[in-house]
Design a protein that fits this description.
alpha+beta, eleven-stranded antiparallel beta sheet, Tumour Suppressor Smad4, about 280 residues, four-stranded mixed beta sheet
């Protein structure tokens, strides 16, 4: 066993790659950004990821039923219940893997702001306050979005592409979505009047935003986004592109080996059994 501290963005990826030959299991002790960094080091390998969620947000750990106390999370690691899950990757400035949700629009602007603003606040309250703050200054950018055979041109507010269902410490942006469904769920919010945005944030938190005119859900395996101006793109709270006006999102051919909680594994097995019939 070797313990190493992450000191900068992408450091977890570097640490993982530097030690990839020495260990079979890599445990993330931190927030979603640390998990994402390790995933980018483990992608396309046969190594296993474990999660000890002790940081900010913990959306991916919650998705996998790795939640509760520190001791409960350690017990899940000790039980060592493994499965394989889909990974997505984005190609923009660089190629970047994600296991939960990647997005662009006002949510990626909020994620970028979280690096330097309200650092003393954690989890959902932090992202909620930043969201209210950034709404006043955000100007929607014209975008052309393609999801398989579906196309939409819109003034983009949010485009979230996911294998999981929540981000930002508890915003239920893709309600009911699971990483064993075999494709992405995509939420596109555009051409929504600005006075509705504050209401929309609360609706996203509760997962009830689908009834707002201008908000659409689509499923697909390949997503292409072109924007009129540069927008940051982020995954699991880590901004991985700031200078691109084009991005493509696809499912990786290889899957992620990961230790999960009993409830998640039970639901995955039940889903796979139903869909074999």
């Amino acid at each position: 066993m070797r313990k190493t501290l992450r000191k900068k963005v992408n450091h977890a990826t570097e640490i993982t790659k530097d030690n990839i030959k020495d260990f079979d299991v890599f445990v993330s002790c931190g927030e979603d950004g640390t998990v994402n960094g390790i995933i980018n080091g483990l992608a396309e390998t046969d190594k296993t990821l474990g999660i000890l969620p002790i940081g900010n947000g913990n959306d991916y750990a919650t998705l996998l039923s790795v939640k509760g106390s520190y001791i409960q999370a350690l017990n899940i690691l000790e039980e060592n219940k493994k499965t394989e899950l889909n990974l997505g990757f984005a190609i923009a400035d660089t190629k970047h893997y994600f296991a939960n949700i990647a997005e662009t629009g006002i949510t990626s602007v909020i994620a970028k702001a979280s690096y330097t603003e309200l650092k003393w606040i954690k989890g959902l309250p932090k992202y909620y306050i930043l969201g209210l703050k950034k709404i006043s200054s955000y100007k929607p950018i014209q975008a052309h979005i393609r999801v398989d055979n579906y196309e939409r041109k819109t003034k983009l507010i949010v485009c979230a592409i996911g294998l999981g269902y929540r981000f930002g410490g508890g915003f239920n942006v893709l309600p009911g979505n699971k990483p064993y469904f075999g494709d992405f769920q995509v939420c596109i919010a555009g051409d929504v009047p600005k006075w509705k945005w504050y209401w929309m944030i609360n609706k996203i938190k509760n997962g009830t935003h689908g009834d707002i005119k201008g908000v659409n859900f689509v499923r697909g395996k390949k997503i292409e986004i072109e924007t009129e101006k540069q927008l940051p793109i982020e995954g699991e709270g880590e901004v991985f592109s700031e200078n691109s006006t084009k991005a493509t999102f696809e499912l990786s051919q290889s899957k992620l080996k990961i230790i999960v909680g009993k409830e998640f594994l039970k639901n995955k097995i039940e889903f796979e059994t139903r869909n074999k019939k």
